[in-house]
Prior knowledge:
With about 240 residues, this protein is α/β, with parallel strands linked by helices. The chain folds into two domains: about 35 residues; about 200 residues, SGNH hydrolase (Rossmann fold, 3-Layer(aba) Sandwich), CATH 3.40.50. It is about 50% helix and about 10% strand. The chain has a five-stranded parallel β-sheet with strand order 2-1-3-4-5, with helices on both faces. The longest helix is centred in the last third of the chain and has 21 residues. The radius of gyration is 27 Å and the shape is globular. The relative contact order is 0.13.
Amino acid sequence: MNRIVFIFLIVAGLSCTDKESPENMILQNETPENNQEPGNTEIYYLALGDSYTIGESVAQNERFPVQLEEQLKNEGFAIQPVKIIARTGWTTDELANAIKSETLKNAYNVVTLLIGVNNQYRGRSADEYRTQFKELLQTAIALAGYDAKNVIVISIPDYGVTPFGETRNPDQIAKEIDQFNSINQQETQRLNARYVNITGISREAKNDQTLVASDGLHPSAEMYRRWVEKILPEAKAILEKQK
């Protein structure tokens, strides 16, 4: 009788050990539910800036971030509606404060940053701009999953060529815009983010008023379209490497 019980216990023990063996644990973890290949992942885009990002004086679908979103959709990317943090008149510190008050995702696939024209317009110093822009760029990189190559910095356009700017010393405006752009380009390159220079396009408005919105100051939808032509290749490169 004791011998029969002993044999039964041995068999039961072997059965239990077999179920918990590493081989069986691996097989159990390799079910289709646990090992499905990711599908067409949703893409999230965050646009940071001021009036040029919020698209003052143009329709919502004509803003450059929305035009960029549409172009990326046309390229087959499953991009979600762009999240825009921008307001007309914002300086670097005002944008930084606004970001802190937002509820944001841990990481965005693409982040664009265009800021500084109001620092120049209000007569803020270049040194202050450098300090605050560096902090904003670091924030943008953090929001882009701590990958600087997922961030696109866009140069400040020259509003001195617009009807509004022509009454406010356009030569001085151009000189100061170039100085601020030199700073944001240097800091962008230092942190290995991407940089797109659209300032030359903005200066085409001097001889082409179709590039200026009805307010005589901000870009028209057509100018934004030209910006997107330059930004799109960088955005595509970012998303292609994330596939």
